[in-house]
Specification:
Helices cover 77% and strands 0% of the residues. With 142 residues, the chain is mostly helical.
């Protein structure tokens, strides 16, 4: 196997793990907000993106996750709960949907047990790890 194939396989593995972590996050939210139409819609959109355009989600999230790396590593809940995400939300047809989802995540946070919070931090740290590996493989690091 040549270096290019190996690199493509590594990227593919990272993307699969990244999508797996997103699915785990949505499963937690879904358990706290069962039958929520917006959560169901997001799960569908994530599945479609994963199948149709696998790089889309990581490419849209990587810089945002990277910018928050210190807060993720410090497990700074207050930072994420009090943060305004306007600068990260594209002004397009998905804007209201994304703003609504952020509100749902913030609203449901207090419903998490300590064990669930620890699990969510573990997921966030794995997302950060995936982003770091991805950025290095595609040459998008400083």
């Amino acid at each position: 196997m040549d270096r290019k194939e190996d690199k493509e396989q590594q990227i593919s593995k990272i993307i699969q793990d990244f999508h797996s972590q997103i699915a785990k996050t949505l499963k937690v939210v879904d358990s706290k907000l069962p039958n929520n139409i917006e959560v169901d819609r997001l799960k569908r959109l994530v599945r479609i993106a994963r199948d149709e355009e696998p790089l889309m989600i990581i490419n849209r999230c990587k810089d945002k996750i990277w910018d928050s790396r210190e807060q993720i590593l410090a497990e700074n809940e207050d930072y994420f709960l009090s943060k305004e995400y306007d600068e990260y939300i594209k002004k397009d047809e998905n804007q209201m949907f994304i703003e609504g989802l952020i509100g749902l995540f913030k609203q449901s946070h207090h419903l998490l047990s300590d064990k669930e919070r620890a699990y969510v931090w573990k997921i966030n740290k794995q997302l950060l790890n995936d982003v770091i590996q991805y950025k290095m493989l595609v040459g998008d690091h400083e």
